[in-house]
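4.2 Preliminary Data

To establish feasibility before requesting continued support, the project team ran the inverse folding procedure on a target of 134 residues. The structure was first converted into the token representation described in Section 3, and no sequence information of any kind was made available to the design step. The complete token record follows.
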């Protein structure tokens, strides 16, 4: 009797499991570092020129060092998930973040002939000498 009950439960439960539907996505949630084609920033002079010509900070800040920024260029070429990986202080970090936050679209990266999200890093070197710097 117990065997019949167990078999009945197994049959009943397997029917429930088989009747459930799952949506399968063609795009798994992957973030690439290495791709077949890296994202491309189309700006006359390149990314360095864009970043350094768009940095704004207070004139009385003294700073020597590097802010390391990480960001994602998504499948549509938008810059998102901007993070300060290495800080140099509030003023420099804020200036670096603002440049990437207002950045125009990129050409997205590709993997296996499909656009993919790509994680990228960019170091911004600061050598700012204010009036108190000796």
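Position-by-position output of the design step:
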């Amino acid at each position: 009797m117990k065997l019949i009950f167990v078999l009945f439960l197994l049959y009943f439960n397997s029917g429930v499991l088989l009747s459930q539907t799952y949506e399968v996505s063609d795009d798994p949630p992957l973030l690439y570092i290495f791709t077949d084609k890296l994202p491309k920033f189309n700006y006359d002079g390149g990314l360095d020129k864009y970043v350094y010509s768009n940095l704004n900070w207070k004139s009385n800040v003294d700073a020597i060092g590097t802010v390391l920024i990480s960001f994602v260029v998504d499948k549509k070429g938008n810059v998102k998930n901007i993070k300060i990986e290495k800080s140099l202080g509030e003023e420099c970090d804020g200036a670096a973040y603002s440049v990437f936050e207002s950045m125009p679209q990129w050409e997205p990266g590709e993997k296996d002939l499909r656009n993919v999200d790509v994680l990228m890093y960019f170091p911004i070197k600061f050598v700012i000498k204010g009036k108190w710097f000796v």
